Amino acid sequence: MNSFGFPILSLVAYIPLIGCLILLFLNKDDHKKIMYTAFGVTIVDMLVSFLLLFGFDSSRAEMQFVEKGSWIPTLGVEYHFGIDGISLLLILMSTILCAIAVVSSFTAVHERVKEYYVSLLFLQTGMLGVFMSLDLFLFYIFWEVMLVPMYFLIGIWGGGRRLYSAIKFFLYTLFGSLFMLLAILALYFLNRNPEYGTGEFTFNLIELSKMNLPLWPFQFWLFLAFFLGFAVKVPMFPFHTWLPDAHTDAPTAGSVLLAGVLLKMGTYGFVRFCLPLFPAASHYFVPLIAILSLVGIVYGGLVALAQKDIKRLVAYSSVSHLGFVMLGMFALNPQGITGSVLQMINHGISTGALFLIVGMIYERRHTRLIADFGGLSYQMPIFAVFFAITMFSSIGLPGLNGFVGEFLILVGAFQYNKIYAAVALLGIILGAAYMLWLFQRMMFGTIDKAENRNLTDMNRREIAYMAPLILFMFWIGLYPKPFIRIMEPAIINIVQKVNPNWENKPMAAEKEKAPVAPAAIELPAAETVHEVETP
């Protein structure tokens, strides 16, 4: 039994689903009641998720708040939830962004309002389930379930070529997921062989991580299959082509959750599954992934410079930023992976805020073309301040959150390969170029469009939902220690599994310290496990 005495992870995961059921019984024409109910559900879920911080032991690497029960016994499928420091931070970020996405939609959605908020809440359950699942079968269900509401959000409430973008998003992700499903089934059967696994049929991640698979052929091909599933979701170059279309045509809340949470499911998949399950293959594929990451960093920055649409510019900036995340992760050292996980959080905050800013200006002008703006700082001074802080956060200005993550990633990459770090620096320069160019074109100069002369500044609701994101930008930028402390034991655990001799490398910052004993990858003691009969 965990310290709360009830299955808190299940509660966090299914509060939004309960909210969906409540919304179904409301009058579809009572938009205000629907909106406030959906917002209330996300606030309750966010507050319950923050309870996890009070019961979480940041000195432990193993999974906590574990909930485990038999689900489909004949197949060895379990209802198995648990979190470590990495997943805890992603869960907290998800619940915050979901609440903000709901409140930002109050004035943006006017048709099929009930269905819209049901889709948002259903999407929230899918995303949270991905970060909690410790059974690969359960993980795959949440992974696929998440596609459905996002498909509808883009296809029904999007703009432009929304049907094309929704189908493209769905098919790309489904394509990668099928390869991942084959790899999950292969692990399931390989574990039955005592030569490689425990001799049992199981989808339990903890048990599967104990397998002893040779690089060739098993780790090689299984890593590639998982790679396709996760690389499409990140998205890594050259699997990124669905992202600009999806962002451009998605509603504002859809773009916020797509950039802030859904893309992190891909990077989370790499750190949660690929590194611990396939350590030898992770080493083998480092050069390939590093090169693809560097290409994505530079390519995303260059293409962002050429964009005329604000949303497409921010979308291509995500390709560049997530290239940094992948580069740090596959440096396979504590600095790189810590920077990578921290940058997942930073990207969710900063890019989520950028899409909210784009949504505000689109509601007022119904255009996203950069050329249609200019001189807005005179007409909308509060908006200009929020935009400036968010822009500098995205660039990685010291004192804001983006700097800490990028710095750690560069330190990790430098330890692995100095050339990789040098090329990555070009991405930082390009990031500053396209963001400063965007800000200068929109905020400065003269107001030469008549439509811009009557634009209203940010209202209290918009300030209220932007303020928490600005707070986190400064908090992480000035004092990242609490965030790093939460994730550090889990990251050290992963590094010592995938790269056991990391502390012996001459450039490692820890070379003067005593060796750290690897944390066992096993379930917590029985008294910390909350048994669940059925999900």
Describe the fold and architecture.
By secondary structure, the chain is mainly alpha-helical. The protein has a domain at 283-499. The chain is 68% helix and 3% strand. It is built from 21 helices and 3 strands. The chain has a 3-stranded mixed sheet with strand order 2-1-3. β1 (64-72) and β2 (77-83) form a beta hairpin. It is globular. The two termini are 17 Å apart. Mean pLDDT is 89; it is low at 504-528 and 530-535.
Helix-strand layout with pairing:
Elements: H1 8-24, H2 31-55, E1 64-72, E2 77-83, H3 85-104, H4 113-132, H5 136-145, H6 147-157, H7 162-190, H8 205-208, H9 215-233, H10 242-249, H11 252-277, H12 279-284, H13 286-305, H14 310-329, H15 334-365, H16 376-379, H17 381-395, H18 401-416, H19 418-443, H20 460-478, H21 481-498, E3 530-531
Parallel strand pairs: 1-3
Antiparallel strand pairs: 1-2
What characteristics describe this protein?
globular; disordered C terminus; 21 helices; 3% strand; 535 residues; mainly alpha; 68% helix
Shape summary: globular
Largest sheet strand order: 2-1-3
Number of helices: 21
Query: What is the residue-averaged pLDDT?
Result: 89
Structural class: mainly alpha
**Can you count the beta strands?**
3
Q: What is the H/E order?
A: HHEEHHHHHHHHHHHHHHHHHHHE
Largest sheet: 3 strands, mixed
Helical content stands at 55-70%
Residue fraction in strands: under 5%
Contiguous low-pLDDT stretches (5 residues minimum) are 504-528, 530-535
The CA-CA distance between the termini, in Å, is: 17 Å
Rg from alpha-carbon coordinates: 22 Å
Keywords: Membrane, Oxidoreductase, Transmembrane, Transmembrane helix
Organism: Candidatus Manganitrophus noduliformans
Protein name: NADH-quinone oxidoreductase subunit M
Subcellular location: Endomembrane system; Membrane
